[in-house]
Design a protein that fits this description.
About 65% of the residues lie in helices and about 0% in strands. It is mainly alpha-helical and about 240 residues long. It is globular and about 60 Å long.
Length: about 240
């Protein structure tokens, strides 16, 4: 089946997209995606292929997809995992054992989730969703303390699933930890999660920004965080006058 998925993706590839993705995902030397390879398939087509095989692919196939050198193969593997996890969460097809196995596979293969799109696709919908009703979320802090960019991003992006339930505690703890991170991709992630909190509870986000001296945090984080604020208030924050 791995070859079938590869062939299906390859049939949809475009040479022009290989160079574009190589640059976009910084696969060049010194870039955050250094060493990655691309088939040149756009995301809608990767999703189509993944959906074709989502019911047939077992964990062995998914693992092989995640171990592929091709970005789109790993992307497809994560889509299949997310689709299978979603099915295992639905009332008519509820399968707690399957949920746990997919969670364990995700953690065991976390090194394969090695660019921001792979993180954003999977972290909230697999890891976050699995942990949303769990009291033990220590795995997020283990990931957060690795000092590895993608694992750090996974830790805070996973909390999007909690925010949707108006559960902000872990997000705020991790946001505080990463508030002065040295990478722009974490500035964006922190700001994004703060913005999502604000959409649910404006006062909680505003209090966090004030307590953590919003005028000292990275500008990208601040801009993301206050994007949905009323324009006059947004300008006050940008000018340090809030």
């Amino acid at each position: 089946m791995l070859n079938e998925i590869y062939d299906a993706l390859k049939a949809r590839s475009e040479d022009r997209l290989i160079k574009r993705k190589y640059k976009f995902f910084q696969a060049f030397k010194g870039g955050y995606g250094e060493g990655d390879h691309f088939l040149g398939v756009d995301n809608p087509n990767v999703r189509k292929v993944a959906n074709e095989f989502k019911s047939q692919a077992d964990f062995k196939v998914i693992m092989k997809l995640l171990h592929s050198k091709y970005h789109e193969m790993r992307f497809a593997g994560l889509i299949i995992m997310e689709r299978q996890f979603d099915k295992a969460c639905k009332k008519k097809t509820l399968d707690k054992d399957k949920q746990k196995k997919i969670y364990e596979l995700y953690i065991n293969e976390v090194n394969a989730i090695n660019n921001w799109d792979l993180v954003d696709l999977s972290a909230p919908h697999i890891l976050g969703r699995f942990l949303a009703e769990k009291s033990d979320r220590s795995i997020l802090y283990r990931l957060a303390n690795t000092g590895e960019l993608w694992k750090e991003r996974i830790s805070i992006l996973s909390t999007l699933a909690f925010i949707r339930n108006k559960d902000f505690n872990d997000t705020l703890k991790l946001a505080r930890k990463f508030l002065h991170h040295n990478h722009d991709l974490m500035h964006k992630a922190v700001g994004w999660m703060l913005r999502e909190i604000g959409k649910k509870d404006f006062e909680t986000e505003a209090e966090f920004l004030q307590k953590n001296k919003y005028h000292t945090i990275p500008r990208t984080t601040l801009r993301y965080a206050i994007e949905k604020f009323p324009e006059d208030l947004r300008q006050q924050y940008l000018k340090g006058e809030a």
